[in-house]
Amino acid sequence: MDLLVREAWSCWHPAVFALLISMMLAGGLRAEPLAISGTGSSIATIKLLSVEYQRIHPDTQITIIEPAMGSSGSIKGVLADVLQLAFSARPLKPAEREAGLTQYVLGRTPLVIAAAIDNDQAKGLTMDELAAVYDGSVSTWPDGSRLRLILRPSTDSDTTALRAMSPKLDKAMDAALARRGMVFPPTDQEAADWIARTPGAIGSSTLALIVSENRPLKALPLAGVAPTLENLRNGTYPHTKTLHAVTHAQPDAVVGRFLTFLASTTGRSLLAEAGYLMVGN
Questions:
Q1: How far apart are CA 118 and CA 95, in angstroms?
Q2: The domain 109-233 is classified under which CATH number: 3.30.70.380, 3.30.457.10, 1.10.10.10, 3.40.190.10?
Q3: Residue 182 predicted with pLDDT over 80
Q4: 265 forms bridges with which residues in the sheet?
Q5: pTM of the full predicted structure?
Q6: Helices (DSSP H) in the chain: which residue ranges?
Q7: Among 17, 106, 248, 251, which has the minimal tally of Cβ within 10 Å of its Cβ?
Q8: What are the tens digits of pLDDT across the range 72-109?
Q9: What is residue 200's three-state secondary structure?
Q10: Is the bond leading into 67 cis (omega within 30 degrees of zero)?
């Protein structure tokens, strides 16, 4: 068995086996099954797409594994043939390509710094101010109330994307990750929960998650530019995360039909509704 496949089986999401057993008992594996998971910010988008796809193809049984398995966990699921499709916030690694996987870029969404929608102090940040928040030299809002930074794990795609924003923020991230007493929600949904319910909190998220899950969060302007799809399209807001569909290089017919749906006018419209800018726009 290939090393990546062995690693996939050794890192299973707790819900996977229970869901697969329930599918087998229900006879779901006899109809055209399509099991999907992915990065946390994509789950609501997957649900939106799946509802419309099953309306058109009622003979396909789509199972969305929740809580989200994350990008890497879902890619391992495809390698082990438990998932047929993964929605990933990162591109494939060379070893994953060598193991027979391929990816399709679905769209981009603004990577944002989010705050609770009722946080009147959170109006926007310059890039230097954002770095100061992460390195700890700024810890209060203009009215003197405490600013609480919600982090993501060091290997999370949000952390990687934030580091890429600027050399100063890259260095500030080192300081933030080393600071004691910080909160590191492991999933996109948990991070959004922490930002929304913690007084004075800010942290990273995506426009797609805020829009598709109707979160009580607002995406803050950075360097005076609002993180909208229009500003992403015109190039004035450069900070993005890309959503990839990952499957085997020679997918079966059911996956092929779903990929064709994603590229259709309907699929592209639903992705845009969920906060993604299509490739080429």
A1: 45
A2: 3.40.190.10
A3: yes
A4: none
A5: 0.86
A6: 3-10, 15-26, 43-56, 70-79, 94-98, 127-135, 157-163, 167-178, 188-197, 207-212, 229-233, 253-263, 265-273
A7: 17
A8: 999 999 999 999 999 999 999 999 999 999 999 999 99
A9: coil
A10: yes
